[in-house]
Amino acid sequence: MLIPTAILPGKPYPLGATWTGDGVNFAVYSEYATLVQLCLFDEKEREVSRINLRWNDNGVWHCFLSEARPGLRYGFRAHGPYEPEEGHHFNPSKLLLDPYAKMVTGPCRWHESFNGYRLANPAPRFQGAIPGGSGEYRAVAPQGPVRDDRNSANYMPKSVVIDPNFPWDKKDRPQTPLQNSIIYELHVKGFTQELLDVPPALRGTYAGLGHAASVAYLKKLGVTAVELLPVQLSMSEPRLTQMGLSNYWGYNTIGFFTPDPRFAYSSNPVREFQEMVRSLHSAGIEVILDVVYNHTAEQGEFGPTISFRGLDNYTYYRVEGNDPGSYINTTGCGNSLDTRQPKVMQLVTDSLRYWVEYMHADGFRFDLATTIARTGFDHHFDSHCSLLDAIAQDPVLNTVKLIAEPWDCGYGGYQLGNFPQGWSEWNDSWRDTIRCYWRGDSGLLGRLASKISGSSDSFYRRSPLASINFVTAHDGFTLADLVTYERKQNWDNGENNRDGNDNNLNWNCGEEGPSASPKVRALRLRQQRNMLLTLLLSQGVPMLTAGDEFGRSQQGNNNAYCQDSAISYLHWDWTDEQEQLWEFVRRVIALRREHPAFRRTTFFKGEEQFTGVKDVIWYNENGLEMENDDWNGRCLCLGMYIAGDYLEGSLDERGLPQRDNSFLLIFSNNRRPQSFVLPKPKSWAEWRIILDTEKPERRDETAGKTLALAPFNAVVMLEAERRR
Q1: Is 405 among the catalytic positions?
Q2: In angstroms, rounded to a whole number, what is the distance separating the alpha carbons of residues 82 and 80?
Q3: Does the pLDDT of residue 424 top 90, yes or no?
Q4: Is 389 a catalytic residue?
Q5: 682-701: b or e for each residue (b if 16 or more CB lie within 10 Å)?
Q6: Percent of the chain surpassing pLDDT 70
Q7: What is the model's pTM?
C-alpha cells in the first residue's frame, strides 16, 4: 500500500472520504474534539500511519492526501474530554468508523474492547467480616466508570475509500406511480437463502436477489417494488452476540452510507448492491429501503464506542437538558439521534441523497419515524420540523417514495395520519381492523368500510395513497401463523418466551398449531385468502410480506429478529395447498393491476357523479343500501359497489378521467353460512363471480339473484355485459 506523504489542507465539504480523481479528501465533524487523527491501514489491516488533522472549519476536521486511492482503509481517533456526566466520551484508544463511510472491510461484530469505559470495581465487595459469618461488614458500591484504554483497532471494521460511479442505464428507474404500487417487504438473505434456482454461492446476497431467478419470481407474482429490511451497516447487540444469536433484521445501524457486507457475495458490496438494483429495475421493480435514522448500534450512555459517541456524543445523541450524561430514549434501543442538530440533519439528508443518486434507491421506509420528527426543548413531534421540511424541499428527495412508521416509544409517540403531504404511512389501524373483522369480531362494519375505502378517517387531509395497508409485516406473526397460533412460540430467542407481542388480534381457527384436520386446514387457507384479497383490493397502497403469498410459517415465532436460521428463511418446497394459495394471490394482484377502480387517488364521496351513479354504494345482506341501524347493528356481512364509470382524480395518459368496470365486493365474517341478496345490476349487465375465497379456482360465472356465502367468505363480482 502506498503511504501518502503529501498532506494538504483539503476542504471541509463533502464530509467523508471523497475520491477526486487525483487524491482523496477527508472530512469529519466533531465540535467538541481537541484533535482528530486520521488512521491509515494496510491490506492486512495493520495501522501504518496516524495523521493529525490540523485544519478545522466550524467543527469539520479535514485534509487532502494526493497519493491516496480507492481501496485505502482508514478510521479516526478523536481526542477530547472524557466526561460522561457532561455528555463527552472522547477516547483516542478507540478506532472510530467514519459516519460517512461508503464501504467497510473486516467483520462488524461486537468486541469487549469497543467499550469506552469500565467499572473500576465492577461488582459489590464487602469490607469487614465474611457475609453470613460473625462480625460487622458493609457493602462497597461499584466504582466507575473510568475510561477503558484498550486499543480497539484490531477488532473494528475499517472504513474504505471507494469510487462510487457506476454505469447506470439512462432510463434505469421504473418510476412507478404510487397508486400503481404493490410493495413486497423482504429480507435480502431470507428471500434467497433456500431458493434452489439461485446458485449456492449467491444465496442470501445482493447478487442472489438480483439473480434472474429471483427477479423472475417477483415479476411473475406481479409486485412493483421490494422493500428491503435494513441493508445499511448494522451491528448486533452484545447481549445477542454473547448468546450466540445476531440481530438478523438489522435494525441496529452504525453506518448510514454503507451497504452491509454480510449480504455481499463479492468483496465489493457497493458494486454488488448497484448491480442488484439495476437487475430489479430492468424488470420494472423498484427498490425501497427500510432505514433506521432514529438510533444507532451504540446503545445506551455506556454502550460501545464505535463511531458517533466517540466523535461527538453531545451533538449526535439526544441528551437530557439538565443531565447531559443521560440519553433521551424514545426508541427503546438505548439512544435517539438528535435530528434537531444541523449536522445530524445533514447526515440524514446526505445519506438519503447518496442512496438515491449513487445507489438508485426509489424510496425509503423510515423506522420509528416519530423520533426523527421530534423537536424543541421538550422533543415533541412536529410534522413541520426542520428535517421533514428539508426533505420536502430537496429536489432529489421529494421525488422518491417516503413512507413513515408513524410511532415510537416516547411520549406522544403515536402519530398516525400526522405526517405531512408527500408522505405515506404504515397504517396499523387498517391492519388491526382487518384482523379483528376476519377473526369474527362484530360491530366493525363501519370501521371496515372506512379502511377498505382508503382510511379517510386517518388521512382526510391527503388521499388514499397516504395509507400503506398491511395485514402482516416482518415484526409479528406471518399470515399463516396468524391463523394457526393464538400463543407465540418465541422460545428460540433465549428470553423464555417473554419477548414479542402478546396482543396479535389472531385466531387459530379452533386448534392450536399445525393441524391434520381437513376442516381446520381449509378454514385457515380461506382466512388467508380473505385477508390477502382484502389487502390487495382495498384503496390505498398494499404491502405484502414475503412468503405470505404461499403461507410461510415461522412455527409461531412472532419476534424472529434474532433468528438467522430456517425459522426466518423462505422455503420453496411448496405443498399443493401452498401452490393454490400462490396462484390465487397472483390472480388478485393481476386484477388490481388491470383495474384502476381499485387504485383511486381520491376518496369516495358517496355521492352521485354526472353519470347518475354514486361512486360507492354500501349494501346490507338484503341487497339494500346500508342505513344507520345497519352500521350500528350486529350485521356481519357487507357489500361494496365500486362504480367505474368515472374515476375522479384518476387520469389516463392524455390527462382525461379514467373509466373502468364496476365491481361488487362482498365480505362476510359470519361463522355460519350467509345469504346475500344481490342488488340489481345495470339494465344491460349481469353479475359475474370472478374471485371467491371459498372456491379459489379461477371463476367467471354468472350469479343469480341471491349469493350463498360460506362461513368467513369474500367474493368479488364484476358488473359485465350480459351474455347473449
Answers
A1: yes
A2: 7
A3: yes
A4: no
A5: eeeebbbbbbbbbebeebee
A6: 95
A7: 0.95
